[in-house]
Automatic annotation (TrEMBL), chains A, B:
Swiss-Prot/TrEMBL GO biological process terms: Mo-molybdopterin cofactor biosynthetic process
Name of the protein: Molybdopterin molybdenumtransferase
CDD domains linked: MoeA (cd00887)
Pfam hit, one: MoeA_C
SMART domains: MoCF_biosynth
Listed InterPro entries: MoaB/Mog-like_dom_sf (IPR036425), MoaB/Mog_dom (IPR001453), MoCF_biosynth_CS (IPR008284), MoeA-like (IPR038987), MoeA_C_domain_IV (IPR005111), MoeA_C_domain_IV_sf (IPR036688), MoeA_linker/N (IPR005110), MoeA_linker/N_sf (IPR036135)
Annotated keywords: Magnesium, Metal-binding, Molybdenum, Molybdenum cofactor biosynthesis, Transferase
Residue ranges annotated for the MoaB/Mog domain, each copy included: 185-325
Length: 425, 425
C-alpha cells in the first residue's frame, strides 16, 4: 500500500506540518508588528541609554568628594548648576562641586556618581551637605547599560509581544522583518449546503456554517481569511473553485466531501490539480478520520470533515498549527499554547486503537477548572456552542475516569472562554 | 479633603470602571462578529433543523413495522425509493415500506423512524430484512430538535466565539447587534521624549516607547488604536492635543506628566477641558501611584506613569478592564481572564500598606509554571522585555515566600507567552 494511503496518527500529521517552511519575509512598520514572528535575529543598532543618565533625583558629584561622609561629618559641596530634563548638561563638574540632576536627566562631564536627594541637605549659599558616601557609578546608567549596541535583542522565530515592540522602538527601529501571514480561502461543499446569502432554505438543505466558523478560527490563528465560498458537490465546479483559490491564497480549506466513500471528491479534485501531492489521506482520530492534507507547489490544501463540530476539532488540532508554522512558529510551541488543565466530571469511555477527541464544556468552582463532556450528535449545531475545547483520549488508553486531571485543548483564543458564560441570566 | 483627592485602592478604581456604560450598539456582518459582545439577547428566528432529518445512513420506516424484529426473525420491508442529499423526499411511505435516506437527508412523509443500515440486509427483489426493532423517533431529528425557534441562543453581554458565529449562521442571521469598540488615542508626553520619526536623538532625550507599547495593548484589548502622538511638556500644547484627541476617540491615554509634583500637568490639562470630572487621582499601588482617571462628557481620559514598565502595568490592571467594559464585558470577567497560577522562585518582600505589582518572568518545568521576579530599575527597557506579567502583593501582606503558588496577571493575549522563549538559541 502506498505510504499516502495509510491512515496517519495525529503525531505523524504534526511532524509533517513541522517540516513546512515559513512563508517569505516582509517588512512591517512597528505599529503593526505585535504578534508577528521575526524572520531574522534583531540586534541593537545603538546603546540604550546613549548618554550617561541619572536613575534618581539628586546631585551629580565626584564620588571621591563624598568618601567618609556621614550624618555627623557631612561632605560640603558647592552647587554650580542644574541639569534640565531632556537637555544636555550645561556645566562641567569640578572638584568639590555638585550639579542637580532629575531622574532620567543627563549626567554632566566630570561627575562619576549621583547622590540621592534624600541624602543631601541644602544649607544655603549654594552649598549642600552630603550625609552618605557614594561609589563611582552609583545611581548612574552608563551608555549601553540597559541595552548594549550590537547585542541580540530577539532571535529569529520570536513572536513579538507589546513590550518587545517597545524595545525595538527604544533602539530607533521603525520597521522590522517578519514572516508573512498566510491568506486562507475557506470553501464549503455539499449538495445540502446553502450559501448564507440564499433568501430561503428548501427542505433537505441546511445553511452553510463552516465558512463562518473556520474563517473566524483562521483569524484567531493570526492568518487572513480571504475568499469564502459554497461549492456544490460537482467535480468540475470544485476543481475550478480550488484552482481559483490557489491563485492568491497560500492555504485552501475545503470542508465536506472528504469522507472515504462515494463522495470522496477532494481526492478526485486533487488529481485534477497540476502538481498536487497527497500527504495525508485519513487520520486515526475520531472525529476527523477523513482529514486530507496536500501540497500543490508551495500551497497547501486541507480537506476537512463536513460536520461543523468535526471541522472545528480538525482545525484546532492540525490546521491551526500549520497556519502558525507558516508564520514561523514551531508546532511544538503552538501545540502547547491554548490548553487548560481541568478535572473530568464524568467517565470518558473510548475505543482502543483510535484517538478520541471528546468535546468538553469548562466551568470553574472554588478556583478549580472542571470539564464536562458534551454529549449529543456532532451533527447538532447546539452541541458545538456548548463546547469550549476537547480532551484527547489516546489510542492506547481505554478512557479516563471521572476525577482525572486532563489537558483540555481550547477552541478559542479568548483566554479561558468558559468565563463568558458567567453573565447568563 | 475632597473625595477625588484621596488615593484610591485598586478595587475602588475597578468598581468605578464597572459603572461605565458600554458604548452604543452597532450592527456587524457575521464575518466580523467573532470576539464582539452582543448588545441584545439573540433568539433563534427558525427551527434547526427546519425539516425532519436522518442522523444516520439507513432506511426510513414506520416503527411499528419493525416491532419484534430480530436476527432470527427479521421484518421484511419493500424499498420504494431513495432520498438524495439536499433534496426533499419524492415518495410518501406506506405500511410495509422502506426508503433509503443518507445521514442528514430529509425523512419522507409517513415514516416515523430510521433503521441504521447496519441492521438491515438487502435480500434482492427490492426487499430488505430489518434485524432490530426501532421506536418512533429513533435516529430522526424533528424540526427544532437542535435549536427551537424563539429559544434564547445567547444573552446580551455574551462575547461571541468562532463556534457561536456558526450557531448564528445556522439560523440564517447575516448580521448581529454588538457594542461598538472604543477608539483610543495614545499620547506620550515629557520634555525628554523624542517622536519615533525624529532622525536623531540628542543627548538628554530618549525615544518614545509608550505609544508603541500602549497601542499594541489597546489592540489586544479588542479596541482600536487611533491617533498616536508625542507632545512636549507644555500646558497649551497638551490641552490642545487632548481636545483634538477627544473629538474622535472615546478614550485618551496620556502617559508621562502625571506624577504628583512640579510637572503635574495632566490635572492642569483637565482643568482646561470643559466638563472634565476627576474620578481618580492616585492609586495605592506601586508602580502606578500617579494614575489619573477622568470623564469628559461620555469620554474617558487616563493619565499613566511615564516609565514604560509602570505604564504597561497600569494599562493591564485598569485601562484594559475599562476598554473591555466599554465593549460590554464586566470587570469581574475581564479581571479573571489572562491569569496564570505559578510557583514563586524567590522571596517577594513588600511594604505593608501599599499593594506591590511585581514583574515576573514565567517558565515551565515538568509541567509546572514557575515565576521568577524581574529585578532592575523600571527605568530600564530591558527589564520590560523580560517580564511576562506581574504578581500582586496586597497592601496587608508583607510579601510572599519562595515556593508559594501565586496568581500572575499576564501582559499579553498570546496565551502562555512565556513559551515564546523556548526557541531562543
Amino acid at each position: 500500500m502506498p505510504e499516502f494511503l495509510k491512515v496517519k496518527t495525529a503525531d505523524e500529521v504534526l511532524n509533517l506540518i513541522e517540516d513546512f517552511a515559513p512563508l517569505e519575509e516582509e517588512t512591517v512598520l512597528l505599529e503593526a508588528a505585535a504578534g508577528r514572528v521575526l524572520s531574522r535575529n534583531v540586534e541593537a543598532s545603538c546603546h540604550v541609554p546613549h548618554f550617561r543618565r541619572a536613575v534618581m533625583d539628586g546631585y551629580a558629584v565626584r564620588a571621591r568628594d563624598t568618601f567618609g561622609a556621614s550624618e555627623s561629618l557631612p561632605a560640603l559641596l558647592t552647587v554650580v548648576g542644574e541639569v534640565f530634563m531632556g537637555q544636555p548638561a550645561q556645566h562641567t563638574l569640578g572638584p568639590g562641586q555638585a550639579i542637580a540632576v532629575p531622574t532620567g536627566g543627563a549626567m554632566p562631564e566630570g561627575a562619576d556618581a549621583l547622590v540621592m536627594v534624600e541624602y543631601t541637605q541644602d544649607v544655603g549659599d549654594g552649598t549642600i551637605e552630603v550625609t552618605r558616601p557614594v561609589a563611582p557609578g552609583d545611581n548612574v546608567l552608563e551608555p549601553g547599560d540597559d541595552i548594549a549596541e550590537a547585542s541580540l535583542l530577539f532571535p529569529a522565530g520570536w513572536q513579538l509581544r507589546a513590550q518587545d515592540v517597545g524595545v525595538l522602538a527604544a533602539v530607533g527601529m521603525r520597521s522590522v522583518s517578519v514572516f508573512r501571514v498566510p491568506r486562507v480561502a475557506v470553501l464549503s461543499t455539499g449538495d445540502e449546503i446553502v450559501s448564507p446569502d440564499a433568501p430561503e432554505v428548501p427542505v433537505g438543505k441546511i445553511r452553510d456554517i463552516n465558512t463562518f466558523v473556520l474563517a473566524a478560527q483562521v483569524r484567531e490563528a493570526g492568518a487572513v481569511p480571504g475568499w469564502t465560498h459554497v461549492v456544490p458537490d460537482d467535480l468540475d465546479q470544485l476543481a475550478a473553485a480550488c484552482r481559483q483559490a490557489l491563485t492568491d491564497h497560500e492555504v485552501v480549506l475545503l470542508s465536506g466531501g472528504s469522507s472515504v466513500g462515494a463522495r470522496d471528491y477532494t481526492v478526485q479534485v486533487l488529481e485534477r490539480l497540476n502538481g498536487a501531492e497527497l500527504l495525508v489521506h485519513g487520520v486515526a482520530i475520531r472525529p476527523g478520520k477523513p482529514t486530507i492534507l496536500a501540497r500543490i507547489g508551495s500551497r497547501i490544501l486541507w480537506g476537512l470533515p463536513g460536520q461543523p463540530a468535526s471541522a472545528m476539532i480538525v482545525f484546532t488540532a492540525f490546521v491551526r498549527p500549520s497556519l502558525l508554522r507558516l508564520q514561523g512558529i514551531s508546532v511544538d510551541r503552538s501545540s502547547r499554547t491554548r490548553t487548560s488543565r481541568a478535572v473530568l466530571q464524568r467517565n470518558l469511555p473510548s475505543v482502543h486503537g483510535r484517538a478520541d477527541y471528546i468535546r468538553v464544556k469548562l466551568s470553574e468552582e472554588d478556583g478549580q477548572v472542571l470539564a464536562e463532556p458534551v454529549f449529543g450528535s456532532s451533527a447538532m449545531i447546539s452541541t458545538l456552542a456548548r463546547a469550549d475545547g476537547y480532551v484527547i483520549v489516546p489510542e492506547h488508553v481505554e478512557g479516563y475516569e471521572a476525577g482525572t486531571e486532563v489537558t483540555v485543548h481550547l477552541f478559542g483564543s479568548i483566554s479561558r472562554p468558559f468565563l463568558a458564560g458567567k453573565e447568563e441570566t
